[in-house]
Please model this.
Amino acid sequence: MNEAPRLFRCAICGTIKGDGNHWLLVFESRSMSVDGIGASAKTRVCVSHWDNVLALQAQTYPVCGNGHAHVLVDRWLSSNCLEASRKPASEASEGLNL
Model:
């Protein structure tokens, strides 16, 4: 049996992604860094072209264009966390990835 196609909403404006849209994905990348002083965790925000597999990851935020990618990056710079910019799950439409 075929599954229904996955629908994605822009994390900023809620627009539903269409087939021909040029969307981006925003996510955090965490890594450990070791220097002469010791080890430390580093978190970076990443912006990527659309990838269907990456889009399904829990901590990936789809955005409908460059402007909304900038909004997420600005929010991350002020809070050091993308999670703070996500709409509450209660505002999500059932069956849609936010």
